[in-house]
């Protein structure tokens, strides 16, 4: 692509001579180590590193042009912009010929439920014969090929590149608040923007719930002219989001379990089963959901409303939800040989933990045990509330290590002991080795018990523990296999 053509997306910042305008650009990079001759280098001011420091390296490797935020004079064409991150998203979209215009794009934001809703929607659409790309916490899936995720939402360059590769009719993306602040969604054009809920999380990054909410509203800036918002009004924040979108004159559909909305939920049964009825345009549809819990009722209802508006037959939607296979690391159940149930979940907020623990009570768990820890370098202000939730809803909880991310292990252990002393009430234990905590619960579980292991979901460990495993699921499968071998002996 000619440089002049590419830079049209930056609102006419190109003022160079004709020769420069005719320069051919064969790729975009924000990492100077990946530059090959003919690339354009975009210098990003990062949180840990400033890309402007590597402009010289990029030029030496053959960068044909450079974009940056500083006032510089270089031996190659250089164009100054106010925000390099915004520029990167726009450039990537233009370079790949605006790939989100070639398919239906569904963006999902909110604190909890993004992953489950995305997988439910993918399953519904594929059950109806559609092809679907997926970008989220668990994996990226394009043309049925699975990629390991770098972030919940890829950076703009990777996202636009993968969308350009995709031959799929639909693309579903989890859009995190970090991605919105960091302009990773810039250049994206969305047909449906979904809002699940909002709860206390990431306040180390956003400072206040109000700022956190305002960031979430930014996703709707990327709606196509004919795009729609779909909002769950189960929470007060959902009602706030509907009001915000109405003020901005953005067309919206809503769902609720307590009032008249585009889709309403009633006849919810959680007593050992998960069953509910949705009413939409005067018609009622009963759903028997294989995923337990009230939170999954809300997730399924949001997926139902979206698929219905897309045009999927409601009978097909019901059948797909009733056959939904679940999500890796999201309320993933593994049985103990003696009848206890172990659940792996990504829950890392008080709301998400309470959803999990209430579900166990609704299914008549004999005893509830909760194993979890706190991730270093993340929102520490929510930890006390998480321990309070466990203390009030569990028969036993075990505090253990999660990813330290540079925080000294002794500091994290000290905090766990302090919280346990304050709220343990003889229910709490501290077992610092995560796999040893899981093994303790496994060896002490009895028929009818429910044991939750939360915080990591399908993620791999970043440190070594006692058991020779790399994830919570592997730890349970290892213990399960060990039990089977002992029974054979």
TrEMBL record:
<dbReference type="Pfam" id="PF08245">
    <property type="entry name" value="Mur_ligase_M"/>
</dbReference>
<dbReference type="InterPro" id="IPR005761">
    <property type="entry name" value="UDP-N-AcMur-Glu-dNH2Pim_ligase"/>
</dbReference>
<keyword id="KW-0573">Peptidoglycan synthesis</keyword>
<keyword id="KW-0131">Cell cycle</keyword>
<comment type="pathway">
    <text>Cell wall biogenesis; peptidoglycan biosynthesis.</text>
</comment>
<dbReference type="GO" id="GO:0004326">
    <property type="term" value="F:tetrahydrofolylpolyglutamate synthase activity"/>
</dbReference>
<dbReference type="Pfam" id="PF01225">
    <property type="entry name" value="Mur_ligase"/>
</dbReference>
<dbReference type="GO" id="GO:0005524">
    <property type="term" value="F:ATP binding"/>
</dbReference>
<dbReference type="InterPro" id="IPR035911">
    <property type="entry name" value="MurE/MurF_N"/>
</dbReference>
<feature type="modified residue" description="N6-carboxylysine">
    <location>
        <position position="216"/>
    </location>
</feature>
<dbReference type="InterPro" id="IPR018109">
    <property type="entry name" value="Folylpolyglutamate_synth_CS"/>
</dbReference>
<feature type="domain" description="Mur ligase C-terminal">
    <location>
        <begin position="329"/>
        <end position="457"/>
    </location>
</feature>
<dbReference type="InterPro" id="IPR013221">
    <property type="entry name" value="Mur_ligase_cen"/>
</dbReference>
<feature type="binding site">
    <location>
        <begin position="152"/>
        <end position="153"/>
    </location>
    <ligand>
        <name>UDP-N-acetyl-alpha-D-muramoyl-L-alanyl-D-glutamate</name>
    </ligand>
</feature>
<comment type="function">
    <text>Catalyzes the addition of an amino acid to the nucleotide precursor UDP-N-acetylmuramoyl-L-alanyl-D-glutamate (UMAG) in the biosynthesis of bacterial cell-wall peptidoglycan.</text>
</comment>
<feature type="binding site">
    <location>
        <position position="182"/>
    </location>
    <ligand>
        <name>UDP-N-acetyl-alpha-D-muramoyl-L-alanyl-D-glutamate</name>
    </ligand>
</feature>
<dbReference type="GO" id="GO:0051301">
    <property type="term" value="P:cell division"/>
</dbReference>
<comment type="similarity">
    <text>Belongs to the MurCDEF family. MurE subfamily.</text>
</comment>
<keyword id="KW-0436">Ligase</keyword>
<dbReference type="GO" id="GO:0000287">
    <property type="term" value="F:magnesium ion binding"/>
</dbReference>
<dbReference type="GO" id="GO:0071555">
    <property type="term" value="P:cell wall organization"/>
</dbReference>
<dbReference type="InterPro" id="IPR004101">
    <property type="entry name" value="Mur_ligase_C"/>
</dbReference>
<keyword id="KW-0132">Cell division</keyword>
<feature type="domain" description="Mur ligase central">
    <location>
        <begin position="108"/>
        <end position="306"/>
    </location>
</feature>
<keyword id="KW-0961">Cell wall biogenesis/degradation</keyword>
<dbReference type="InterPro" id="IPR036565">
    <property type="entry name" value="Mur-like_cat_sf"/>
</dbReference>
<keyword id="KW-0067">ATP-binding</keyword>
<protein>
    <recommendedName>
        <fullName>UDP-N-acetylmuramyl-tripeptide synthetase</fullName>
        <ecNumber>6.3.2.-</ecNumber>
    </recommendedName>
</protein>
<feature type="domain" description="Mur ligase N-terminal catalytic">
    <location>
        <begin position="24"/>
        <end position="96"/>
    </location>
</feature>
<keyword id="KW-0547">Nucleotide-binding</keyword>
<feature type="binding site">
    <location>
        <position position="151"/>
    </location>
    <ligand>
        <name>UDP-N-acetyl-alpha-D-muramoyl-L-alanyl-D-glutamate</name>
    </ligand>
</feature>
<dbReference type="GO" id="GO:0009252">
    <property type="term" value="P:peptidoglycan biosynthetic process"/>
</dbReference>
<dbReference type="InterPro" id="IPR036615">
    <property type="entry name" value="Mur_ligase_C_dom_sf"/>
</dbReference>
<keyword id="KW-0963">Cytoplasm</keyword>
<feature type="binding site">
    <location>
        <begin position="110"/>
        <end position="116"/>
    </location>
    <ligand>
        <name>ATP</name>
    </ligand>
</feature>
<feature type="binding site">
    <location>
        <position position="176"/>
    </location>
    <ligand>
        <name>UDP-N-acetyl-alpha-D-muramoyl-L-alanyl-D-glutamate</name>
    </ligand>
</feature>
<dbReference type="GO" id="GO:0008360">
    <property type="term" value="P:regulation of cell shape"/>
</dbReference>
<dbReference type="Pfam" id="PF02875">
    <property type="entry name" value="Mur_ligase_C"/>
</dbReference>
<dbReference type="GO" id="GO:0005737">
    <property type="term" value="C:cytoplasm"/>
</dbReference>
<keyword id="KW-0460">Magnesium</keyword>
<feature type="binding site">
    <location>
        <position position="32"/>
    </location>
    <ligand>
        <name>UDP-N-acetyl-alpha-D-muramoyl-L-alanyl-D-glutamate</name>
    </ligand>
</feature>
<dbReference type="InterPro" id="IPR000713">
    <property type="entry name" value="Mur_ligase_N"/>
</dbReference>
């Amino acid at each position: 692509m000619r440089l002049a053509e590419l830079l049209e997306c930056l609102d006419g910042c190109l003022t160079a001579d004709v020769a420069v305008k005719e320069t051919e650009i064969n790729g975009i990079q924000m990492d100077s180590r990946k530059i090959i001759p003919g690339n354009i280098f975009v210098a990003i001011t990062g949180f840990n590193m400033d890309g402007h420091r590597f402009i010289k390296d990029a030029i030496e490797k053959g960068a044909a042009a450079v974009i940056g935020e500083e006032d510089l004079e270089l031996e190659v064409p250089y164009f100054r912009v106010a925000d390099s991150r915004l520029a990167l998203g726009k450039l990537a979209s233009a370079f790949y010929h605006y790939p989100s215009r070639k398919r239906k794009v569904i963006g999902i934001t909110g604190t909890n439920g993004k992953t489950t809703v995305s997988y439910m929607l993918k399953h519904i659409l594929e059950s109806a014969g559609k092809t679907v790309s997926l970008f989220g916490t668990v994996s990226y899936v394009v043309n049925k090929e699975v990629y390991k995720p770098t972030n919940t939402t890829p950076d703009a360059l990777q996202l636009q590149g993968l969308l350009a590769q995709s031959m799929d009719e639909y693309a579903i993306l989890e859009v995190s608040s970090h991605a919105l602040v960091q302009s990773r969604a810039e250049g994206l054009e969305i047909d449906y923007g979904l809002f699940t809920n909002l709860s206390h999380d990431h306040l180390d990054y956003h400072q206040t719930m109000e700022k956190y909410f305002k960031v979430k509203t930014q996703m709707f800036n990327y709606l196509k002219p004919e795009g729609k918002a779909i909002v769950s009004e189960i929470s007060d924040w959902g009602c706030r989001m509907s009001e915000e979108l109405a003020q901005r004159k953005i067309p919206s559909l809503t769902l609720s379990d307590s009032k008249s909305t585009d889709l309403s939920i009633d006849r919810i049964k959680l007593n050992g089963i998960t069953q509910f009825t949705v009413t939409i345009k005067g018609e009622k549809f009963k759903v028997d959901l294989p995923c337990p819990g009230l939170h999954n009722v809300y997730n399924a209802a949001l997926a139902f409303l979206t698929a219905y508006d897309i045009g999927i037959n409601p009978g097909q939607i019901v059948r797909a939800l009733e056959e939904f296979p679940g999500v890796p690391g999201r309320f993933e159940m593994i049985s103990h040989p003696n009848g206890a149930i172990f659940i792996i979940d990504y829950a890392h907020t008080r709301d998400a933990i309470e959803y999990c623990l209430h579900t166990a009570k609704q299914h008549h768990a004999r005893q509830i045990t909760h194993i979890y820890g706190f991730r270093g370098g993340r929102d520490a202000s929510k930890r006390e509330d998480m321990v309070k939730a466990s203390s009030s809803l569990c028969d036993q909880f075990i505090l253990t290590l999660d990813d330290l991310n540079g925080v000294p292990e002794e500091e994290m252990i000290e905090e766990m002991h302090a919280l346990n002393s304050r709220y343990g009430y003889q229910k709490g234990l501290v077992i610092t080795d995560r796999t040893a905590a899981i093994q303790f619960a496994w060896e002490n579980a009895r028929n009818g018990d429910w044991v939750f292991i939360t915080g990591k979901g399908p993620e791999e460990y970043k440190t070594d523990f006692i058991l020779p495993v790399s994830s919570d699921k592997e730890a349970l499968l290892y213990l399960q296999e060990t039990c089977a071998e002992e029974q054979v002996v």
